[in-house]
Design a protein that fits this description.
Elements (H helix, E strand, L loop, with lengths): L4 H26 L6 H23 L4 H17 L1 H5 L5 H30 L9
Length: 130
């Protein structure tokens, strides 16, 4: 099986995103940070969905587009929930919503690309024999 360059790139990016979110969880747990437990839980979900998207991208799994989309949704939800969760000033709202929209668009783009790549790999359908 030959992977496209785009598929490899998405696998690497999602793996790095998973490592980053996972490191945040480990640091929060080891150093008893004052971050809310909901934030640590959301970071763990981000790490798991990014790892799933990385693995699915690398293995050319049929569920990879769904994992990429789920990563975008979970991460965007986490970003927009930071204002009330961390009691941030209202001025932070625009940046958080912009970041959430950007991550969601990234997840949609990755899902679209991975789905399109799967469709190109599908064997052509045969006409029914008479």
């Amino acid at each position: 099986m030959r992977r496209s360059r785009g598929r490899v790139a998405f696998a690497v990016v999602f793996a790095l995103l998973a490592l980053n979110a996972g490191a945040q969880v480990v640091l929060a747990l080891l150093h008893r940070s004052d971050d809310p437990s909901a934030l640590t839980t959301l970071q763990a979900l981000v790490s798991v969905t990014a790892a799933a998207a990385a693995w699915g991208s690398w293995t050319v799994a049929r569920w990879a587009p769904g994992a990429a989309l789920l990563y975008g949704l979970v991460t965007a939800a986490m970003l927009v929930s930071l204002e009330p969760m961390l009691d941030l000033p209202a001025e932070a709202r625009v940046g958080l919503w912009t970041g959430g929209a950007t991550v969601l668009l990234f997840g949609l783009w990755a899902a679209w690309y991975l789905r399109r790549d799967l469709a190109r790999r599908a064997p052509p359908e045969r006409a029914p024999s008479a």
